[in-house]
Each structure stands twice: as C-alpha cells, then as structure tokens.
Specification:
It comes from Eleginops maclovinus (Patagonian blennie). It is found in: Nucleus. It is built from 9 helices and 3 strands; from the N terminus they run H-E-H-H-E-E-H-H-H-H-H-H. It is mainly α. It has a 3-stranded antiparallel β-sheet, with helices on both faces. The longest helix is centred in the middle third of the chain and has 28 residues, at 123-150. The chain is globular, with a radius of gyration of 19 Å. The protein binds a DNA duplex through residues 17-19, 35-37, 56-57, 59-60, 62-67, 73, 82-85, 99, 101, 103-108, 194.
Length: 294
DNA sequence: TTTTGTTTATCTATAT
DNA sequence: ATATAGATAAACAAAA
C-alpha cells in the first residue's frame, strides 16, 4: 500500500493560532525579535500547511501583529539595515498559553488604552519604550555572543543549539511550547483546567517535535527544521494549580534597570505574586518601568 | 511597485 | 446560548 509516510499529516493545519506561531518564531531566535519576513519563513519552514495561500495567511499574520498588544515593534537601528521593524513579544504579556491551548488564549493581552484602565499614567507607551529599549540591548548582546561562538560551531542558522547566555526562557519559547505539549502525560493532570484534550484529540506529528525521537519517520522527512531543536525536552514551568494561578510572574528584568543586569538568574523561582493576570500590567511592574524609563 | 503596517468589518470557533 | 478570541477580507498609508 502507498505508505502514508510523507505528506500525510503535514498539510493539516497545525493546532496553533497565528499568535502562537508568531510567538514561537520570535522566541525561537536568540535575539527574541524578528522581522516580518523571518516570521513568515519560520512558519513556512516548519509547517508545510503554510506554504500555500500565503497571501491569505500572511495578511492575517500581519493583522495579528498590529492588532495584538502582545507584539511590539522594535525599530531597526542604523546598523541593522533591512525592511520593516523587528517584532518582539511584549515582556509583560506573560504566559498566554496558561490554559494549555495554543488555539485560543483565555484573555487577550491588551495594554491600557486609557478608557478602561483605572491607572492613568502607567502602562502603554512607557512600557513599550522600556520594552523596546531592553530588547534592543538584548539584541546587541545576543549578537555578540553569537559572533563569539560562531567560530567554534558548525553553521546552523539562528536556531542552532546555542542557548542564549541568559537562562531565561519565555513561556513562549519554542522549547517550552513543545515540551508542554509533549510532557502532558505523567502526573500533570492538574495542569489542564478542564482536561485539555491534547492527546486524545490529535496525535499529529508536531506533538512529538521535542521528544528527541530523531528516528521518527515524520520528523526527519517532513520537519527537518525542528530536529535541530531536539533538546532534552526542558522541564516546563508548570503552574501548580490552574485555578489559583492568578499569579503572573513578572518578567525578571522588569524589576531591574533595563540595560544593566541581564542575568535573570532564576526567573521562575516560585514567586507567586498575586498580580494581575497578564491583562493589565501589575502596579509593581509599572512602577519598575517608571523608574527604569528616566 | 512591493513590502510592511494599521484599521475596520464580518464571520467562525471555542470556552463558559 | 452568549461572549469573546481568532481568522479572513479588504482598504489604505508609509516605507523601501
């Protein structure tokens, strides 16, 4: 019989929203920011489904970038010529996949525009500025690290196995996304609020990306780009209880001065500050921002 | 002209 | 069933 091996699953629509996909792309690169064209490329490289109807989905993607506050635009510096800005995740957007679904977030991450926000002079433009500043700095450093390492490593593109010097992995980091999907088994029942259907629902190829099974036929042939990401399935920062997890760990750097200490030694250290759930920026965070943005 | 961004409107899908 | 997140379409401006 015609072995279904090749493109059987691959043209199925991946179970990720554009937001998820974009976040993966951004977090998958060392600089944590990408120009639009690179986001396209990331998605197309990995998901054959998106190698068609590009006009359609790319328009949607662009719409998402502009429309969702969780994405921020970082202007190119003169030393980075090219088209368009870089796109990054807003540092305060937290873990938008809390509910375990990559299709739909529990709530949109929206910056206070003024109307609905009881804090007037907080968030919006200032947090953007701070974020931009931080990320630009981060980009510089990432660049340095990369060029330093480039000498020793085989060419592999921006997703080579080099972990960024900072141990911090955003919840959107592709390692985490993958790991979370894959690590569902075991005793993690508490994680999914309503018993998320992940494994019963769809066992498609992308659920094994991070599993380290290079020998899987699907892997090597259809998703070559993902093999380089075969890390030891990083233990995911699991939120203990879905119900009581209204704590959004502040991104570590928000508590620091932007350009200064870039070593978030342990960003996940069980801190449970009862902050606002990603929706609005917690007051402490905005306080930190105000300080940091002279 | 093409790419990149913004914005509005409408429809579909999903969680509650 | 309803509210809302996400997808798609489309008009349009600005930049390259």
């Amino acid at each position: 019989m015609p072995r279904p091996g090749r493109n059987t699953y691959s043209d199925q629509k991946p179970p990720y929203s554009y937001i998820s996909l974009t976040a993966m792309a951004i977090q998958g690169c060392p600089e944590k920011m990408l120009p639009l064209s690179e986001i396209y490329k990331f998605i197309m490289d990995r998901f054959p489904y998106y190698r068609e109807n590009t006009q359609r989905w790319q328009n949607s993607l662009r719409h998402n970038l502009s429309f969702n506050d969780c994405f921020i635009k970082i202007p190119r510096r003169p030393d980075q010529p090219g088209k368009g800005s870089f796109w990054a995740l807003h540092p305060s957007c937290g873990d938008m996949f809390e509910n375990g679904s990559f299709l739909r977030r529990r709530k949109r991450f929206k910056l206070g525009g003024g109307l609905l926000l009881p804090d007037p002079m907080t968030v919006s433009s200032k947090s953007q500025d701070a974020a931009v500043h931080f990320l630009q700095q981060q980009q510089r450093e990432a660049k340095l690290r990369l060029s330093a390492l480039h000498a020793h490593l085989p060419p592999g593109g921006y997703m080579s196995s080099v972990p960024p010097a900072s141990g911090f992995k955003h919840p959107f980091a592709i390692e985490n996304i993958i790991a979370r999907e894959y690590k569902m088994p075991g005793g993690l029942a508490a994680f999914s609020p309503a018993g998320f259907p992940l494994h019963q629902q769809l066992p498609p190829p992308w659920s094994v990306y991070g599993s380290g099974m290079m020998d899987s036929p699907i892997m090597s042939s259809d998703y070559p780009a993902y093999s380089l990401q075969t890390l030891p399935a990083i233990p995911v920062p699991i939120k203990p209880s879905p119900g009581s997890m209204l704590h959004t760990h502040l991104p570590a750097f928000l508590a620091h001065s932007p350009p200064q200490s870039l070593s978030p030694s342990s960003p996940q250290t069980g801190q449970s500050s009862p902050a606002a759930p990603g929706e609005a920026l917690s007051s402490s965070a905005s306080a930190a921002l105000q300080v940091s943005v002279h």
